[in-house]
């Protein structure tokens, strides 16, 4: 089963105006079910634009975007995906639990069921004790975990993440990477993950998609087949080999 299929997609902003920008040109990408795919490339190469097209927050100028076998707009209406961005984007006046419940409220899920699902998701991200806290009482890493719990609350088949760990220190970031992999393995969620970090992309992904700027294109796709992904992986020769391959692809 294919989670995301992008075929011949071009995105031009401000078409026909002096400030016209071709953000993406003729992009093809397939994300298989359960696969973890990272998008990496220089600033302005269209990573966020590609993610926003998958989420149907913007429409392509040409080409097609299919999510879970449906046109992207239908997939959005059916809430086939969850989104987490660099800023956790929590509502300060809502408790952690009620932040996680929000997408369920929007779906008109009954209160009891909402509460149970929120507790389940908070346990999954290791925050079972913090449901009654307010976001300001949590560290940045904990807030990011709440955002992930919220994105997963509707049990989406697809998770879209735009530099979700960008604002975190290195140690917290590595811990959350490991947690995210465990969550994806437990839930079978497919993930499209935007990052600037080569090491993060390599550690997390089944496939690293390298992009170039002006116009944004996919230049190289690197498959990653580690048997395990743990602290030892980060020290292994095969890990450094893939890191080097991605770095070379980014340079060329
Ligand atoms: N709404 C918009 N209107 C006009 N131009 C836009 C819009 N959104 C993005 N762009 C342009 O499209 C190009 C790609 O932007 P995008 O944000 O996708 O890049 P990115 O790879 O995610 O960058 P970064 O790594 O810096 O976050 C850039 O040149 C940007 O200026």
Automatic annotation (TrEMBL):
UniProt xrefs under CDD domains: ABC_NrtD_SsuB_transporters
Top-rank lineage group of the source organism: Bacteria
Molecular function GO terms recorded: ATP binding; ATP hydrolysis activity
Parts forming coiled coils: none
Family annotation (Pfam families): ABC_tran
Record's keyword terms, sorted: ATP-binding, Lipoprotein, Nucleotide-binding, Transport
SMART domains: AAA
PROSITE patterns in alphabetical order: ABC_TRANSPORTER_1, ABC_TRANSPORTER_2
Matches recorded under Gene3D superfamilies: P-loop containing nucleotide triphosphate hydrolases
Protein name listed in UniProt: Sulfonate ABC transporter ATP-binding lipoprotein
Species of provenance: Dactylosporangium matsuzakiense
Lineage: Bacteria, Bacillati, Actinomycetota, Actinomycetes, Micromonosporales
């Amino acid at each position: 089963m294919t989670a995301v299929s992008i075929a011949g997609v071009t995105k031009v902003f401000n078409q026909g105006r002096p400030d016209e920008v071709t953000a993406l040109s003729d992009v093809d990408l397939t994300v298989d079910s359960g696969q973890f795919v990272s998008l990496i490339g220089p600033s302005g190469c269209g990573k966020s634009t590609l993610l926003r097209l998958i989420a149907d927050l913007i429409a392509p100028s040409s080409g097609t975007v299919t999510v879970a076998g449906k046109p992207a707009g239908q997939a959005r209406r059916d809430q086939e995906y969850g989104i987490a961005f660099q800023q956790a984007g929590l509502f300060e006046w809502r408790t952690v639990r009620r932040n996680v419940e929000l997408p369920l409220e929007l779906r008109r899920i009954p209160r009891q069921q909402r509460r149970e699902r929120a507790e389940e998701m908070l346990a999954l991200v290791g925050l079972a004790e913090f449901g009654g806290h307010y976001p300001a009482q949590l560290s940045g890493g904990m807030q990011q975990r709440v955002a992930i719990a919220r994105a997963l609350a509707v049990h989406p088949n697809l998770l879209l993440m735009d530099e979700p760990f960008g604002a975190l220190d290195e140690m917290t970031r590595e811990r959350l990477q490991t947690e995210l992999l465990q969550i994806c393995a437990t839930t079978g969620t497919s993930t499209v993950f935007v990052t600037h970090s080569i090491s993060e992309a390599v550690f997390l992904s089944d496939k690293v998609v390298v992009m170039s700027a002006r116009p944004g294109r996919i230049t190289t796709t690197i498959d990653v087949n580690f048997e395990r992904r743990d602290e030892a992986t980060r020290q292994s020769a095969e890990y450094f080999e893939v890191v080097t391959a991605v770095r070379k692809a980014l340079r060329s």
